[in-house]
Specification:
Keywords: Periplasm, Signal, Transport. One of its GO terms (cellular component) is periplasmic space. By secondary structure, this protein is α/β, with parallel strands linked by helices. It contains 19 helices and eleven strands. Helix 1 crosses helix 14. It is globular and about 65 Å long. 45% of the residues are buried.
């Protein structure tokens, strides 16, 4: 009887431990169709096994998720898994709040990740700090139907061709030939990377915290000035210039004919075009005379936070393993347009019999764009307080678009204000060696 009682008690303790291990949280920052896809993956993980259970909690945006996670960590009430976006990488690396994912999962073949997805989130020694997850990159979208109406048979691949097509569209009566929102990620970061241009010295901060911004001295300054002039000419529209009030919504409605946008925008655009227009998607345009380099990975990756017990870490590892499966990456790509992050997924798509399906339209082109020849200035951005710098850049350049200052003055001011942020960050982490 005593043995049975002891066995029963032991069983109860084992069950209690299993239940404890099951309760892990994953915080994410997406909304809309991406949030729907994330929730579907969480449900699929919970249905696929019974050892662990993940609760996925949306925070409304990447910025809010980052702020709440840091506050939760300080109060010891943080999740074991947190999704952070690209711009917060250095802040997380130096926060002492996360464990490098490659240390948590040493047996994973991390070199199976595409180079473009690895570079942003790895240390100088090549160790991944976080697991790339919803990876996007910049692509070029066109409404082929509207282009053909204007007599444009060839999809533009250079900026010179884009503007030539824009002039033909305008002449044909099209009110919005090309649309962008002027976002830092699109018009500065992705532009600079694929043209092989630095945003800051020290290879965008990878070689030290004493970096300085140089964006006001590179060809990016000329491109941004061009955007101002093309907008005056009626060839380029910003959010506020469109009836929809949003560049992707304006493109999806057929209001605008060409757009530079995230691969993560594809699913919504393709759905909106059904039965109305033909959509094309390709690599972002280049200026003639420049060699094409890789675009940067956008979106976000998943970090393992410190201070959780081993059972929760085990659950986190199981969930990360699940998300890495080709089938799960394919599901995320099909639902959102985000790009697969490991090289084996393209083979899996081909073997699925749906390799030519529109739901995987961004997979091959997105990977191809991120896997173009790389330079020391196109790995990514490793700058402190970069989230705040993005706000500075937008504030100054929007004034230029509004005619309140020249674009060169805007970039000079952004550089000065950005350098102040970098010096504050350098002072905060004085003596700390970059990972």
């Amino acid at each position: 009887m005593k043995i049975s009682t002891l066995a029963a008690a032991t069983a109860l303790m084992t069950v209690a431990h299993a239940v404890q291990a099951a309760d892990i949280e994953f915080w994410y920052g997406n909304t809309g169709n991406v949030e729907t896809a994330i929730k579907a993956e969480c449900d699929a993980f919970n249905a696929a096994q019974s050892k662990h259970h993940v609760t996925c909690v949306g925070q409304g945006s990447y910025e809010v998720s980052m702020q709440k996670a840091i506050a939760a960590y300080r109060s010891h009430n943080h999740p074991v898994l947190i999704q952070f976006f690209d711009a917060g990488t250095l802040d997380l690396m130096l926060s002492d709040a996360v464990v490098p994912v490659q240390d948590i999962l040493p047996d994973v073949k991390w070199n199976s990740y595409i180079a473009g997805a690895r570079a942003y989130y790895e240390t100088s020694g090549g160790k991944l700090f976080s697991q790339p997850y919803n990876a996007s990159t910049l692509l070029f979208y066109t409404n082929k139907t509207e282009l053909e109406k204007a007599g444009i048979a060839k999809i533009p691949t250079t900026w010179e061709e884009v503007i030539d097509a824009a002039r033909k569209l305008k002449a044909a009566g099209h009110a919005c030939p090309f649309v962008t929102d002027g976002d830092t990620w699109r018009v500065l970061e992705q532009f600079s990377a694929r043209h092989g241009l630095p945003i800051a010295s020290k290879h965008n901060g990878y070689d030290g915290l004493d970096a300085e911004y140089v964006l006001n001295t590179t060809f990016a300054a000329k491109h941004l000035t061009n955007l101002v002039e093309w907008r005056k000419e009626g060839l380029v529209k910003l959010n506020a210039d469109t009836k929809a009030g949003n560049y992707t919504a304006a493109f999806n409605a057929g209001e605008c004919a060409m757009m530079e946008g995230s691969s993560g925008s594809y699913a919504a655009s393709a759905k909106a075009f059904e039965g109305k227009y033909e959509i094309t998607v390709g690599m972002a345009p280049m200026y003639q005379g420049y060699e094409r380099h890789n675009t940067l990975v956008g979106g976000a990756s998943i970090y393992v936070m410190k201070g959780r017990d081993q059972s929760e870490v085990d659950g986190a590892k199981a969930f990360l393993d699940f998300l890495r499966q080709p089938e799960q990456q394919m599901a995320l790509t099909a639902a959102t347009g985000y790009v697969p992050v490991t090289n084996d997924v393209l083979d899996a798509i081909a073997k699925s019999g749906e390799g030519n399906s529109t739901k995987y339209a961004t997979a091959a082109i997105g990977i191809k764009s991120m896997n173009q020849p790389r330079t020391e200035d196109s790995r990514g951005i490793r700058l402190g307080f970069y989230v705040q710098f993005r706000e500075v850049f937008m504030e100054e350049t929007q004034k230029a678009f509004a005619g309140e200052q020249t674009m060169q003055a805007a970039l000079d001011r952004a550089k000065a204000r950005g350098d102040e942020l970098l010096r504050r960050f350098e002072k905060t982490y004085k003596g700390v060696k970059l990972p």
